[in-house]
Design a protein that fits this description.
Layout (H helix, E strand, L loop, with lengths): L1 H26 L1 H26 L4 H56 L9 H13 L3 H16 L1 H12 L1 H10 L1 H10 L6 H40 L4 H11 L5 H18 L3 H25 L8 H42 L2 H4 L1
Helix pairs in contact: 1-13, 2-3, 2-6, 2-7, 3-7, 3-11, 9-10, 9-12, 9-13, 10-11, 11-12
Length: 359
């Protein structure tokens, strides 16, 4: 019984340590965000460094080589993407004024007749005037709240500068993490009590299993979804198809976010371009088809059930971590929750085998 109490106390202590670490992460989130992003990048690249190391390449040399390849590839990839995107934006920008003018002359009157809205504006000018009148009619409390929000935003300038500096030195973070990746585990392992090192090794492997499944799988998934979205929109004939596809694919780093962002952008563009309801419907149908393909074939092949999070838990985790850490919290919500699940499962198992549960 004493042994069971000791195990339960150990897991409670681990839970307290995790809570304190997360609290510190929240307080210093501006500083830690670039560091954690660098860790995720280093984690993704570490297998390549290990591969070179097995071929008798010094780890420091391997880290420099892999990081250089990453930076060069990123530069050329971004240059190519920006070139295509700039061309699409230029073409769409030339047509956008006529789209907007046509929208005011066709779609707004259609909506007014369809829904029998007497006071609905029938031109873009009337629509903008109605927004201006609405803003003028806002209560002083709402206006003061907006001013307070703007004041708070300006006060955060220093935090944004610190965050920007952190992102600029991310390559240095990534290099040192790649070079000393194995040392990180050794340092942590050194401070683990000898009797608990076997448990630590098991949990480390479980976390590695979950993180590798999500990070590498999700990265490949984003690329696939960007391609599928771009092709679908191109077939429908929506302008800015490549740009919208890339944005929606990148947004897929956060589960479900790519679907929402992609439908909103592409349906809006289709409405402006074609001035009807059929093409936005085609867009929604195409995104639904791609989503079904992703859910029932692509994701099971790439990630499988290794994350083990229910869709409801996934959505809740995104909301919770987004509230705590902002945009970065949204990005890391799923892998962080999956890692926490590893420890929570251990605590739950210890509780079930403890005298407290037995009584």
């Amino acid at each position: 019984m004493t042994l069971e109490k000791g195990r339960f106390a150990k897991h409670i202590l681990i839970a307290i340590i995790i809570f304190l670490m997360l609290s510190l992460l929240y307080i210093l989130r501006v500083v830690f965000i670039p560091i954690l992003l660098s860790f995720f990048v280093a984690y993704l690249l570490n297998p390549l460094v290990e591969l070179l190391e097995r071929k008798k390449v010094h780890r420091t040399t391997a880290a420099v080589f892999i990081l250089a390849i990453l930076l060069i590839a990123s530069f050329f990839l971004l240059s190519s993407l920006l070139s295509v995107i700039q061309r699409e934006i230029t073409i769409a920008g030339e047509k956008l004024p006529s789209y907007i003018a046509s929208l005011g002359n066709t779609m707004l009157p259609k909506l007014k007749n369809m829904f029998m809205l007497k006071d609905m504006p029938t031109t873009i000018g009337e629509f903008l005037n109605s927004i201006g009148n609405y803003m003028k009619g806002l209560s002083p409390d709402v206006v003061s709240m907006l001013l307070a929000w703007l004041s708070s935003a300006f006060k955060s300038t220093i935090s944004y500068v610190i965050a920007l500096l952190g992102f600029l030195i991310m390559p240095f973070y990534i290099f040192y993490m790649l070079r000393d990746f194995e040392k990180l585990k050794t340092i942590v392992w050194y401070y683990i009590p000898p009797k608990q090192r076997n448990w630590f090794d098991i949990k480390w492997d479980e976390i590695d299993y979950v993180l590798s499944a999500f990070l590498r799988g999700q990265l490949i998934l984003c690329i696939i979804m960007a391609i599928l979205y771009s092709i679908s929109l191109y077939v429908i004939g929506v302008e800015l198809s490549f740009l919208i596809g890339v944005i929606a694919g990148a947004a897929f780093l956060v589960p479900f976010m790519g679907l929402v962002v992609g439908i909103f952008l592409s349906a809006t563009m289709a409405l402006l371009q074609f001035q009807d309801f059929w093409h936005p419907l085609y867009v929604i149908t195409a995104f639904a088809a791609v989503q079904i393909l992703e859910a029932y074939w692509i994701t099971p092949k790439l990630i499988g059930s290794r994350i083990g999070l229910h869709p409801v838990i996934t959505v809740v985790s995104i909301l919770v971590w987004g509230e705590l850490l902002g945009l970065f919290g949204v990005l890391i919500a799923v892998p962080l929750t999956a890692v926490l699940k590893v420890f929570l499962k251990s605590i739950a198992d210890a509780y079930r085998s403890s005298p407290i549960f037995g009584s």
